[in-house]
Amino acid sequence: MHVPDGFINAPVSVATGALAAAAVAVSLRGARRELAGTGQGGGAGAERTAPLAGLVAAFIFAVQMLNFPVAAGTSGHLLGGALAAILVGPYTGVLCVSVVLLMQGVLFADGGLTALGVNITDMAIVTTVVAYGLFRVLVKVLPRSRRSITVASFVSALVSVPAAAVAFTALYALGGTADVPLGKVFTAMVGVHVLIGIGEAAITALTVGAVIAVRPDLVHGARGLTAPLELRTSPLTAATPVPAPATTAPRRSVRRVWLAGLAAALVCAGGVSYYASASPDGLEKVAHDQGIDAKARDHTAKDSPLADYSVKDITDPRLSGGLAGVIGVGATLAVGTGVFVVLRRRRNAADARPAAAGAPAERA
Known about the structure:
62% of the residues lie in helices and 4% in strands. The protein is mostly helical. The termini are far apart.
């Protein structure tokens, strides 16, 4: 659903750019709290969340390369807002998808640069807000179990994709550059993206379920799923459970999870992507059929050596596409992890200042 340059006029593009910038600013503040408090033990596991958030961004980039067929001559791909929000939190999720969209636009000429605000608004903000809001409602009403988290992930991801299609239709109603009846745009966009939503839901539920199966403490949306460890005294003396000391919970490394996630991203982008559907995605198909692309413009980065997810001057399509995918995963991982590490350190520094100010002065 990457919107190219020229689909939406300049005033609406500027307005969505301002909205996206404001949302990213708010998310930067919210992500500091999420990165400092994710995982059992609150801040005790904070040092591991920034690399995991960077990995989520890289994984979304990789899986977005895997277009899957949804209807005659149409394909779809993961948007990722629901997956990111459930794994690392809604604020961090917005930043993850925004990093992916930035890397795709700058390096791979995918999604217009003047339409970056439109794409962040539609694919990062709308999907994350809708998905995580619905996810939290479902988690509250469903039984408290791992299966409920997976079911809630499926439903919230499914709904988030047509929600993004509705948002695009609204933006097109405000600033569409081609004279196309709004009813046709709405019907076509929502219809095809309901089908794409099924694929989004399946990918999200499978990924969240796989992580929960091995490390539920790493899933932001599963916080509180595992009951805290308690010590009980003898029934002859007392019946009141006593919370176990914090030190009784062994610290578990995330290295294996991180390496497994990175390996999966590299395999998807570097190998499996070669077999992805070559059919146009939902927006491209609707734009061509309905004439929305009448005033589309060439991408500013069309001459990028990685444009269209291939490496310039490498003629073998499998090698060219695979290498471009690996480069994209590495670049997204580096940028995403860098952003989240800086946020985490700033949060830690902010927490340390009040503590230092309240400490008693040492006597000479």
